[in-house]
Design a protein that fits this description.
mainly alpha; 30 helices; 7 strands; single chain; 5-stranded mixed beta sheet; two-stranded antiparallel ribbon; Glyco_trans_48_dom; globular; Glycosyl transferase 48 domain-containing protein
Length: 642
């Protein structure tokens, strides 16, 4: 690695350093670059700035004022070791998503960090244009921690390190630096996934443990709720929804809820209904936008803040933030359970383009679609088996916010996808998804080309997990057997019997279907091409038979347990059956999610409304003109017939 200085005639080499190996293979990329670059720096202060950031000439004149902050004593005894600066988000006008993220980020880098620094005193370093006391940090481990995986969110660890070693972090708002945020749905979700993974690794790190032990009580609480506690609370919120619905399903299938409602000795549930209605309003996530409204109100007036808030709700901001709640909960929970987080390159480019259905399915299948369908099935069961004795108002009050969450998790990627309801794009997406589902996988086959390769890549976290993670994964999968146990006694074939033999018979049917599926997977390999169509039809019939008689959740439980116990399942020769069963479930999930998109694409006004919803007026007009020009070009290219 060479430091070169531009001279009058030739570039002048200052000095050269031999590296111990490829820097990015030793640790995480960005912190390794920072640790390597710090040896080429000089002076007493060092500014770290991201590539997606900007600056203006007049702001540079304030740098000498900022540097003087290093000489000011704070609280009468401590001089700062990190100076935090304010940021200005300049990508908010691109689309509604960019506007949501811009407002959210603006509230964090202004009013949020202002309060974190003073009075809470728990501001750290967040990858922003902070200025470090160089002499303090190079003698205490540098400005970055770069260990693989654990230091995925490398920036905040430098703040942890500085605080643990006696440093002090401040925040100053008379200087601001420009910043570009992600503007596309998939970009934003990958960034949120990276941050959630990083917070999961922070939860498992020694740094957070040591800070928690050394802070006083109030500062410890402030530290918890402004770092890993926010993601832990998001995960608990989603878990509580699961516990609530599984408890409701138990009440309705066991007949306990009916007995409670019809019991004359139990007073009316009017107070409970009103409390649940109030709870439903707050569960929409409206309180999460309060800092955003406060910051806009302080800077531009509360009338403007109220107007922006109303417009954001009309542009489905609640749908977007509810969707991101699922992203945070999934990736944080997976990291806590199995570890193994990885860097996700979002690009941070100006990417406003149509994402194919297969791309959305690969990105959100496990984090949102599976969970959304599970909650939807729970809600349907709760409605179907309790509608005969329960008032509709009670069901609406209890489940409205959860239905909102289910719809957000299932369809937000398509609502916020440019040209997501364009008929031509929808047809192309369907063709691409069918090709992806049918392609065979194998060594060297990219997961974007084959469902089998993607399915195998989705299980990487299970290959390297420990025995604790594997056992917990199996225990969590056992919840799907509750459906079969509860529903089988409500079938007409049971004739009101509560004997355990009815449940045993349902297992016999399920095992028979799995064995038949095993025969199909064997026949697919052993018979010639003339029999392939017959086996595909037979496999489809068996999938439908198994789904409706032995219930879909039970089959999904078999898939999850089979993935967790992959070596054992391969040893007994049932891995191909698990894969074929998984393919059938993926096809079914894809159809359920794709059908509403397909139907809405029939109506041209839906696509126009979506374009107006997502983008500003100039961009929407340009997009409509491009569609007209494309249609005219296609019409001109058609061969004329006489």
């Amino acid at each position: 690695s060479v430091l070169v200085k531009g001279g009058d005639k030739l570039d002048e080499e200052i000095y050269r350093i031999k590296l111990p190996g490829p820097p990015t293979e030793i640790g995480e990329g960005k912190p390794e670059n920072q640790n390597h670059a710090i040896i080429f720096t000089r002076g007493e202060a060092l500014q770290t700035i991201d590539m997606n950031q900007d600056n203006s000439f007049e702001e540079a004149f304030k740098m000498r004022n900022v540097l003087e902050e290093f000489h000011k004593d704070h609280h009468g005894q401590r001089r700062p070791t990190i100076l935090g600066l304010r940021e200005h988000i300049f990508t908010g006008s691109v689309s509604s998503l960019a506007w949501f993220m811009s407002n959210q980020e603006t509230s964090f880098v202004t009013i949020g960090q202002r309060v974190l620094a003073d009075p809470l005193r728990v501001r750290f370093h967040y990858g922003h244009p902070d200025i470090f006391d160089r002499l303090f940090h190079i003698t205490r481990g540098g400005v970055s921690k770069a260990s693989k995986t654990i230091n995925l969110s490398e920036d905040i660890f430098s703040g942890y390190n500085s605080t643990l070693r006696g440093g002090y972090v401040t925040h100053h708002e008379y200087v601001q630096v420009g910043k570009g945020r992600d503007v596309g749905m998939n970009q934003i979700s990958q960034f949120e996934a990276k941050v959630a993974n990083g917070n999961g690794e922070q939860t498992l790190s020694r740094d957070v443990y040591r800070l928690g032990r050394r802070f006083d009580f109030y500062r410890m609480f402030s530290f918890y709720f402004t770092t890993v506690g926010f993601y832990f609370s998001s995960m608990v919120t989603v878990l509580i929804v699961y516990v609530f619905l599984y408890g409701r399903m138990y009440l309705v299938l066991s007949g306990l809820e009916r007995r409670i409602i019809e019991d004359a000795t139990i007073s009316s549930n009017k107070a409970l209904e009103e409390a649940l209605a109030t709870q439903s309003v707050f569960q929409l996530g409206l309180l999460l936008v309060l800092p955003m409204v406060m910051e806009i109100g302080l800077e531009r007036g509360f009338r403007t803040a109220l107007g922006d808030f109303i417009i954001m709700q009309l542009q489905l901001a609640s749908v977007f933030f509810t969707f991101q709640l699922g992203t945070k909960a999934h990736y944080y929970g997976r990291t806590i359970l199995h570890g193994g987080s990885k860097y996700r390159a979002t690009g941070r480019g100006f990417v406003v383009f149509h994402a194919k259905f297969a791309d959305n399915y690969r990105l959100y299948s496990r984090s949102h679609f599976v969970k959304g369908l599970e909650l939807g099935i729970l809600l349907v069961i709760y409605q179907v088996y309790g509608s005969s004795y329960r008032s509709s108002n009670l069901y609406l009050f209890i489940t409205f916010s959860i239905w909102f969450l289910v719809c957000s998790w299932l369809f937000a990627p398509f609502v916020f996808n440019p040209s997501g309801f364009d008929w031509q794009k929808t047809v192309e997406d369907w063709t691409d998804w069918k090709r992806w589902m049918g392609n065979r996988g194998g060594i060297g086959i990219d997961q974007n080309k084959s469902w089998e390769s993607w399915w195998d890549a989705e299980q990487q976290h299970l290959k390297y997990t420990n025995i604790r993670g594997m056992i917990l994964e199996i225990i969590l999968s056992l919840r799907f057997f509750i459906y079969q146990y509860g529903l089988v006694y409500h079938l007409n074939i049971a004739r009101g019997s509560t004997s355990i033999l009815v449940y045993a018979l349902s297992w016999l049917v399920m095992i028979t279907a799995l064995l038949a599926l095993k025969l199909v997977s064997m026949g697919r390999r052993r018979f010639g091409t003339d029999f392939q169509l017959m086996f595909r039809i037979l496999k489809a019939l068996l999938d439908i038979f198994a789904a409706f008689l032995a219930f879909l959740p039970t089959g999904w439980a078999f898939i999850l347990i089979g993935q967790a116990c992959r070596p054992c399942v391969k040893g007994i020769g049932f891995w191909d059956s698990i894969m074929e069963l998984g393919r059938a479930y993926e096809c079914l999930m894809g159809l359920v999610i794709f059908m509403p998109v397909f139907i809405l694409s029939w109506f041209p006004f839906v696509s126009e409304c979506q374009t107006r919803l997502l983008f500003n007026q100039a961009f929407s007009r340009g997009l409509q003109i491009s569609m007209i020009l494309r249609a005219g070009k296609n019409h001109k290219d058609k061969p004329k017939t006489t």
